[in-house]
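G., the chain you wanted modeled:
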Amino acid sequence: MEFYICTMQLSPKALKWVLRFYPPFFFQRIWVKRVYPDFRQLDMKIHKSLLNRNSNGTIFGGTIFAAIDPIHTLLFDQIFRRKGIKRTVTWLKSARIEYLKPGRKSLYFSVRISDEELNRALQAITESGKLVQTFEVLIYDANDTLCARSANEIYIRDLSVKEPLPTSDNKLQI
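Predicted structure as tokens:
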């Protein structure tokens, strides 16, 4: 489903509702609270429920990871579409998550794209046709206790920019 989301320009409200009913979010009780009008911020809540509890009675780590996985790529894709970069492919290239405290209650996080991060991303896409960038996400419980920290490396390619053909100078070394 993420592929189809990334091929459309959506309003913030439409993106919020599409993600709310995205099966990995819906069945794990991951709720998009708000997508901001400029797509530079998104607020999420992971409801603790029988559907996402582990054997310790806390929120399953995979649920936390699933909530974070597509967010930066989706937000950047929507931003780029509004700036005329419409043919992109996006995915999470790598991630590292550190579970600091058990999620005994519902969890909350916000993804924010700063001016500096956006400018760096736009420069990379316009100059090289691709973006590889890492973002940190902090996940809190209702008492503002930091429960998890994630570093997500995203990859976005502008498909309208042709990659240079390999030459003797830039051949892949194995």
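The longest helix spans residues 115-128.

Shout if anything looks off.
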